[in-house]
Design a protein that fits this description.
It is a single chain. The protein has 259 residues and is α+β, with helices and mostly antiparallel strands. It has 2 domains: 208 residues, Alpha-Beta Plaits, CATH 3.30.70.20; 43 residues. Helix content is 36%, strand content 14%. The protein contains 8 helices and 9 strands. A 3-stranded mixed sheet has the order 8-1-9. It has a two-stranded antiparallel sheet with strand order 2-3. It has a two-stranded antiparallel sheet with strand order 4-5. Strand 4 and strand 5 form a beta hairpin. It starts with 5 loop residues before the first strand and ends with a helix. Bound molecules: iron/sulfur cluster (2 copies). One iron/sulfur cluster binds next to helix 1 and helix 5.
Length: 259
C-alpha cells in the first residue's frame, strides 16, 4: 500500500530544550547515548540553545528534490516514498559530494573509520513502514515536534499562524527552501535571529546541477568531434607529407641513380 509522504513540524515556540527528542533518536537508532551539541556521525539530531530561551532542533530536512541524491554519482542516497532520504553504505564511494551539495550542511561522515559512512537522520523510515511515529516526535513532551502526513502538517502550520498572528512569525521555514522539505519550522521571531540560513534558494537545487549536467553530452560530443577531426587532419597531413617525400625521393632516384 502506498505511503503518503511524511514529515515533521517543529514549533520552536513550544520547545523547552529538554533533549528528549535527541535521546530517543539515539535509542531507536541504536546510537551511543551521549548527546552532543553538534550533528555528527552519532548525533543525527541536536537542539541548539538560542537567545531568549529559544531552542532550535537541527536534523536532515529530507528535501522534496534532494541535492545530495542528485550529487551522488552511484545513487547511494535515495528519496523514499515515506519522504525519507536514505543512505546505502554498500553503494557509497565515500566521495562526499553529497556533503558539499546539501544546502543545510547536514550530512556527517565517519572520519575516523576504516570503512567510513555518511551519517544522518533517516526520518525513522523503518518505523514509518511499521505505522509508527518517529522516535523524536514520540518522545517530545510538549508537541514541539509532531510527526504526520506532510500536507496535513503544512495545513496545521498555516492554521497556527492564522489563528495566532501575534504569537507566530508569519513564515514557515522549510516549506519552500531548496524547493521544499519534509521538516517545517514555526517560530515567534524572524528565523534569521535564530541562525536559520535565509539564503537557501527557493527552488530544487538539482536544477543547478542539471543545468551543468545536461551540457555534458553536448560538450563530450563536440569535444569528440573536434579531437576526431584533428586526429584525422594530422593523419592526412602526415600521409600527404610522406607521399610528397616519397614522390620527391622517387624523382631523386630516377635523376642521379642507377639508370
Ligand atoms: S526522524 Fe528518526 S532518525 Fe530523524 S531525528 Fe527523529 S528520531 Fe532521529
Ligand atoms: S523533545 Fe520536544 S521539547 Fe524537548 S528538546 Fe526536543 S523538540 Fe524540544
Amino acid at each position: 500500500m502506498a505511503i503518503k509522504s511524511k514529515g515533521l513540524l517543529i514549533d520552536i515556540t513550544r520547545c523547552i530544550g529538554c533533549d528528549a527528542c535527541s535521546e530517543n533518536c539515539k535509542a531507536v537508532n541504536d546510537l551511543p547515548p551521549q548527546v552532543a551539541p553538534e550533528l555528527d556521525s552519532d548525533n543525527w539530531t541536536v537542539v541548539y540553545r538560542r537567545e531568549q530561551e529559544q531552542y532550535v532542533r537541527n536534523l536532515c530536512r529530507h528535501c522534496a528534490d534532494p541535492a545530495c541524491v542528485s550529487a551522488c554519482p552511484v545513487a547511494a542516497l535515495t528519496k523514499e516514498e515515506s519522504g525519507a532520504v536514505l543512505y546505502d553504505k554498500d553503494v557509497c564511494l565515500g566521495c562526499r559530494y553529497c556533503m558539499t551539495a546539501c544546502a543545510f550542511r547536514i550530512l556527517t561522515f565517519e572520519w575516523f573509520s576504516y570503512n567510513p559512512r555518511i551519517r544522518k537522520c533517516v526520518l525513522c523510515d523503518a518505523r514509518i513502514k511499521e505505522g509508527k511515529s518517529t522516535g523524536c516526535a514520540e518522545a517530545c513532551p510538549t508537541e514541539a515536534t509532531v510527526f504526520g502526513d506532510l500536507d496535513t502538517l503544512v495545513k496545521v502550520a498555516k492554521a497556527r499562524i492564522a489563528d495566532q498572528p501575534k504569537k507566530y512569525h508569519d513564515y514557515i521555514y522549510g516549506l519552500d527552501e531548496a524547493g521544499g522539505t519534509s521538516v517545517l519550522y514555526l517560530t515567534s521571531v524572524p528565523f534569521e535571529k535564530l541562525g536559520f540560513d535565509m539564503t537557501v534558494p527557493k527552488y530544487p537545487l538539482p536544477q543547478l546541477t542539471w543545468q551543468v549536467l545536461k551540457q555534458v553530452p553536448t560538450i563530450v560530443g563536440v569535444g569528440a568531434a573536434f579531437l576526431g577531426g584533428s586526429y584525422f587532419l594530422f593523419k592526412r597531413r602526415a600521409a600527404v607529407a610522406a607521399a610528397e617525400e616519397a614522390a620527391k625521393s622517387g624523382k631523386g632516384d630516377k635523376g642521379g641513380g642507377h639508370a
